[in-house]
């Protein structure tokens, strides 16, 4: 996270379904969110490891940024459930 003075770095943290969400104001009225696994292990997408992901767009509120982050987490969790058993079966 990049901070340009304390007033531009007001964060909102929460946990959701195995992930930590941090919403932060990147500019006046421009909210973003980052997610990382709650166990601090990297998120692996198509074999690429990410310690943290910044998701979404510049939202007008922290609530909108968090809602978008939750939808991304739901997608990642759904994708892992659908992909992992196929991978295990193919390599068993």
Give the tags.
single chain; 92 residues; alpha+beta; 4-stranded antiparallel β-sheet; two-stranded antiparallel sheet; 6 strands; disordered C terminus
Q: Total strand count, please?
A: 6
Total helical segments: 1
Q: What is the quaternary state of this protein?
A: single chain
Q: What is the residue-averaged pLDDT?
A: 77
The profile of the biggest β sheet is:
4 strands, antiparallel
Structure summarized in a few sentences:
With 92 residues, the protein is an alpha+beta fold.
Describe this structure in words.
16% of the residues are buried. The model is unreliable at 1-10 and 81-90 (pLDDT under 50). Strand 2 (19-27) and strand 3 form a beta hairpin. The protein is built from 1 helix and 6 strands, in the order ββββββα. It is elongated and about 35 Å long. It has a 4-stranded antiparallel sheet, covered by helices on one side. The chain has a two-stranded antiparallel ribbon with strand order 4-5. It has one helix at 62-90, and strands spanning 11-16, 19-27, 30-37, 43-45, 48-50, 53-59. It is α+β, with helices and mostly antiparallel strands and 92 residues long. Helices cover 32% and strands 39% of the residues.
List the helices and strands and how they pair.
Layout: E1 11-16, E2 19-27, E3 30-37, E4 43-45, E5 48-50, E6 53-59, H1 62-90
Antiparallel strand pairs: 1-2, 2-3, 3-6, 4-5
